[in-house]
Amino acid sequence: MSRPPLTGDASIAGRCTRSSASTYFDEVLVRIADAGHRLDFIERDYRIAGRSVRLRCTGPALAASMTRAFAHLASGPADEPSLTVYLADGGAVSLPRSPWELLDRTPSTAWDQEEGALMHVRDERVDGLFRLDGASVSMLDHVSGVGVFWTASPERVPRYERAAPLRALLDWWGGDHGCRVVHAGAVGTERGGALLVGKAGSGKSTAVLACLGSGLSYAGDDGVAVSHDAMPLIHSLLLYGEAPAWPSPARVAASGVRARGQRGGAPGQAHVLPRP
Questions:
Q1: Average pLDDT of the segment spanning 162-190
Q2: 22 CA to centre of own chain
Q3: Which domain does 66 fall in, by range?
Q4: Are residues 154 and 240 in the same domain?
């Protein structure tokens, strides 16, 4: 499946000065493997969008920060996960020198702000997203199904990554398997569901929580995965998102809900509730 370009005002293109994204990714993996000889990785296994995902963390602080939102998707270990992501911090793994020109650098004190300037790099095998203040790096090898999330320290994990971890990585990987991560909420039952879309602050979380008293299950309030099927399937992705009060895990539709209804006269599309 083709990979669309990264979009959004926060992204800029990287200019490669001496190597490809794949070469840099391989160098990072070598350093992570070296760290694995000194450390015992903390492993967490999940079932995301119907596929097995394994997170391997270099330390408990980073694991706590990056895995909380996936707790409802925990599963037993798989022999061959569809996606394996290494979560590493600068105390355990030092990154090679970046081969790309950083066109702009924001002050290092900006790491706790909302999404700042990001540099997106890619080649035929690897996608990468670099935060220009040095707070984090996300990379995915589409061929091997191996990803890396690196942060300078567990304390410097960007706020949006704590709330919605690994969103870029999961979207790249999902695109290889027929689904995309969307900024939306979703509620429903096994018979059908609704996707609620809107800009940040438009009331998606409030609307989702208001639906819980009606017997509908929660699939997400800030990020879900939606399949490309003729009858799309909405997969729960992030349990916590931005909701001010969290539903009981028993109310979470972790296995996904089928989108029903019509939009623009096309049957089998997700029923979309736009911003008022």
A1: 88
A2: 20
A3: 11-177
A4: no
Residues 94 and 195 placed together within one structural domain of the fold: no
In a domain, 267, yes or no: yes
Tell whether 239 is covered by a domain.
Answer: yes
Instruction: Write down which residue in 159, 177, 195 finishes a domain.
Output: 177
CA 79 to chain centre: 22
Side chain identity at 52, as an amino acid letter? S
Give Cβ neighbours of residue 97 (< 8 Å, ≥ 6 apart): none
Quote the strand ranges of 17-145, DSSP E: 42-48, 51-57, 83-89, 100-101, 118-122, 126-131, 136-141
Tell me, yes or no, whether 219 and 150 share the same domain.
no
pTM recorded for the entire structure: 0.78
Render pLDDT for 224-242 as a digit per residue (tens, 0 to 9). Answer: 888 887 777 888 876 654 4
User: Domain check: are 139 and 217 in the same one?
Assistant: no
Number of structural domains in the chain: 2
3-state secondary structure 136-172: EEEEEECCCCEEEEEECCHHHCCHHHHHCCCHHHHHH
Q: 218 - beta bridge partners?
A: 187, 252
Provide CB contacts within 8 A for 170, sequence distance 6+: 48, 181, 225, 237
What percent of the chain is helix, strand and coil (3-state, nearest 5)?
25, 35, 40
Question: Do the bridges between strand 233-236 and strand 257-258 make them parallel or antiparallel, or are there none, so unpaired?
Answer: antiparallel
